[in-house]
């Protein structure tokens, strides 16, 4: 278990790169980007050095095929989608230091230089393989672009890599009556040469890294060791599609680097690009070559092997001394009403739709309350309204507003000077200090949902304290003490909630009479009460309760947005 201590650390916070084929849904967001944002904001609050990077994964067959269907250039389609996704993340208040893209010149050059080194170090070989080719579209067809009949269950729309009906993993050559997913014509098998990463050669080094890395969570460690025990196989590095980074290997003209083997290197290139843009072109090395750096990867559980085996193997094969992943923070799946998100089946909510119906902090708060840290979690509108009404409004919002209103009315909007503390006052003050430590410890272990639960417990204790002390009935000096302590708790809640709901925390901060940016403050200030005599403005509720009618309007709005999208395509 990681604890907060006085020594400062350098962190590289990495969120899995979203693919620009479509807008991410809520499950994608909580699995990587939003969780990483909370971690980055918290680590900055405790005063550590943080660089938070991610970017758009722009290359590969899906974008190329979609561009063919639309009759446009893949680059134009990818750039347009990248711009949309980047702007959405800004609206979600994601605090990236650099949100890059795999079409960045820095990334393209880095990937080519990187793989030249891996090739020169003897970890790349070529081999001839048979792949399906569509004569009509003049394109080799990777797994998902072959459809046919499943040999196991007879489902006639099985993909080349998996049958969605029976769940069996497949190879394209196993399909009965295969056809091109783009045009429907019958493809033909052709021999093509590809380049492979000799992953098995690094088995021993990888096993040592995983076994000796005490920071890896049990699920990542166990899955990785099982994969190693089953035996590693070489991984394809190249594809025949044109939309991608040209492979730098001798004789590989016309080939591009396979998108999965390219995007993971974006964590490095995005860091390089960030410091180049800052005018500090050598500083990236502190984050990638200094063994004291802690690099954390926020991913979904299906992405674990790429970050505990393939990416570390590539770093080792380059022989450049790169820092290996310090840990991965992987989530289970967020389901929608018990089902997997599916655009084709209209199951789920997408991050652009969400922002059209409720404030961003409502969404952030609900998603982090449901973060699937230990098991799959379910999202439903019933959960949404319950969490907003009970936790955000009635628990947190109600406590804050009651205290501020009493302060404004009973003490003319000035923070009162406290008198002698009762045992109850001392107890709540001690609780603030105790909980700040416990919450920080949960955050250091990237258990955001667990930490949020403790924040709610602390706020609930504030409500109980207020109901017990009844400052509105007390004599002036005793009431002043109770309000002084309660205002201290509001300040603590504002700082604790900042990583989760930054805009709302800033509003709470301002309602306490502070005029600066809450992000300029530090976690340790939780222990310091609001200064006596500080003026607070007239209080206004920060949150509001939702009704069934609000949810009805939201679902109707989302359906309307989807209909508009369909008609415009």
UniProtKB/TrEMBL annotation:
<dbReference type="GO" id="GO:0006431">
    <property type="term" value="P:methionyl-tRNA aminoacylation"/>
</dbReference>
<feature type="domain" description="Methionyl/Leucyl tRNA synthetase">
    <location>
        <begin position="12"/>
        <end position="404"/>
    </location>
</feature>
<dbReference type="InterPro" id="IPR023458">
    <property type="entry name" value="Met-tRNA_ligase_1"/>
</dbReference>
<dbReference type="InterPro" id="IPR009080">
    <property type="entry name" value="tRNAsynth_Ia_anticodon-bd"/>
</dbReference>
<dbReference type="InterPro" id="IPR014729">
    <property type="entry name" value="Rossmann-like_a/b/a_fold"/>
</dbReference>
<dbReference type="GO" id="GO:0005524">
    <property type="term" value="F:ATP binding"/>
</dbReference>
<comment type="function">
    <text>Is required not only for elongation of protein synthesis but also for the initiation of all mRNA translation through initiator tRNA(fMet) aminoacylation.</text>
</comment>
<keyword id="KW-0862">Zinc</keyword>
<keyword id="KW-0547">Nucleotide-binding</keyword>
<keyword id="KW-0067">ATP-binding</keyword>
<comment type="similarity">
    <text>Belongs to the class-I aminoacyl-tRNA synthetase family. MetG type 1 subfamily.</text>
</comment>
<feature type="binding site">
    <location>
        <position position="166"/>
    </location>
    <ligand>
        <name>Zn(2+)</name>
    </ligand>
</feature>
<feature type="domain" description="Methionyl-tRNA synthetase anticodon-binding">
    <location>
        <begin position="415"/>
        <end position="558"/>
    </location>
</feature>
<dbReference type="Pfam" id="PF19303">
    <property type="entry name" value="Anticodon_3"/>
</dbReference>
<feature type="short sequence motif" description="'KMSKS' region">
    <location>
        <begin position="340"/>
        <end position="344"/>
    </location>
</feature>
<dbReference type="InterPro" id="IPR041872">
    <property type="entry name" value="Anticodon_Met"/>
</dbReference>
<dbReference type="InterPro" id="IPR033911">
    <property type="entry name" value="MetRS_core"/>
</dbReference>
<feature type="binding site">
    <location>
        <position position="150"/>
    </location>
    <ligand>
        <name>Zn(2+)</name>
    </ligand>
</feature>
<feature type="binding site">
    <location>
        <position position="153"/>
    </location>
    <ligand>
        <name>Zn(2+)</name>
    </ligand>
</feature>
<feature type="binding site">
    <location>
        <position position="163"/>
    </location>
    <ligand>
        <name>Zn(2+)</name>
    </ligand>
</feature>
<dbReference type="GO" id="GO:0004825">
    <property type="term" value="F:methionine-tRNA ligase activity"/>
</dbReference>
<dbReference type="GO" id="GO:0017101">
    <property type="term" value="C:aminoacyl-tRNA synthetase multienzyme complex"/>
</dbReference>
<dbReference type="InterPro" id="IPR014758">
    <property type="entry name" value="Met-tRNA_synth"/>
</dbReference>
<dbReference type="Pfam" id="PF09334">
    <property type="entry name" value="tRNA-synt_1g"/>
</dbReference>
<dbReference type="GO" id="GO:0046872">
    <property type="term" value="F:metal ion binding"/>
</dbReference>
<keyword id="KW-0030">Aminoacyl-tRNA synthetase</keyword>
<feature type="binding site">
    <location>
        <position position="343"/>
    </location>
    <ligand>
        <name>ATP</name>
    </ligand>
</feature>
<keyword id="KW-0648">Protein biosynthesis</keyword>
<keyword id="KW-0479">Metal-binding</keyword>
<dbReference type="GO" id="GO:0005829">
    <property type="term" value="C:cytosol"/>
</dbReference>
<keyword id="KW-0436">Ligase</keyword>
<protein>
    <recommendedName>
        <fullName>Methionine--tRNA ligase</fullName>
        <ecNumber>6.1.1.10</ecNumber>
    </recommendedName>
</protein>
<keyword id="KW-0963">Cytoplasm</keyword>
<feature type="short sequence motif" description="'HIGH' region">
    <location>
        <begin position="18"/>
        <end position="28"/>
    </location>
</feature>
<dbReference type="InterPro" id="IPR015413">
    <property type="entry name" value="Methionyl/Leucyl_tRNA_Synth"/>
</dbReference>
<dbReference type="InterPro" id="IPR029038">
    <property type="entry name" value="MetRS_Zn"/>
</dbReference>
